Amino acid sequence: MKIHDLAPAEGSRKKRKRIGRGPGSGHGKTSCRGHKGQKARSGGGPAPGFEGGQMPLHRRLPKRGFTNLFRSEYATLNIKDLDRFEANTTVDVDVLRQAGLVKKVKDGVKLLGEGEIKKPLVVKVHKASISAVQKIEAAGGKVELL
After folding, report:
1. pLDDT digits (tens, 9 = 90+) for 109-122
2. Taking every pair of C-alpha atoms in the chain, what is the biggest distance, in angstroms?
3. For 95-105, what is each residue's pLDDT tens digit?
4. Among 48, 59, 85, 92, which residue is least crowded by beta carbons within 10 Å?
5. Closest of 141, 145, 93 to residue 116, by C-alpha
6. Cα separation of 21 and 117, whole Å?
């Protein structure tokens, strides 16, 4: 067998249906949509989720819980991420953003206690967990809340 002998399997390649290309194509004029009716119109067809007048599923199911419009959302940061900074550096939101550790500040930055830190740092954030504060103070640094 040579490369010029290769061919796709019989019936595996099918030409696409080109609709709206004149009467000779067999798919002209109404473009396979039939005459009149909802599905023949442009943009026609029922809305997503419409069940023919039956009460739709999303309205049949019970509603649960609620969304608190006033909840605070913090950008989180772990202690292990602070190890890249030099000792005795003041780390604030601008420094974190430049380092790429925080993208969106949202309602503030919260420091969490995952990981270890060896260098003393002065960290200025909006919130900090108790374990994070303890680990930073044990390393000789301090946490200042904004």
Report:
1. 999 988 888 888 89
2. 85
3. 888 888 888 88
4. 48
5. 141
6. 70
Confidence grade of residue 1 (pLDDT, cut at 50, 70, 90)? confident
Beta strands at 142-145 and 127-128: parallel, antiparallel or unpaired:
unpaired
Question: What is the rounded average pLDDT for all residues in the chain?
Answer: 91
Which residue segments constitute the domains of the chain, with CATH numbers given? 18-55 (no CATH), 75-145 (3.100.10.10)
Contacts of range 53-60, beta carbons closer than 8 Å, 24 or more positions apart: none
Total-model pTM: 0.56
Q: Identify the CA nearest to 82 among candidates 109, 58, 45, 44.
A: 109
Residue for token pair 């019936």: 11
User: 33-61 burial by CB neighbour count: b if 16+ within 10 A, else e?
Assistant: eeeeeeeeeeeeeeeeeeeeeeeeeeeee
Residue type, position 47, single letter:
A
- Beta pairing partners, 74: 106
pLDDT of 55 strictly over 90:
yes
How far is the C-alpha of 73 from the C-alpha of 127, rounded, in Å?
11
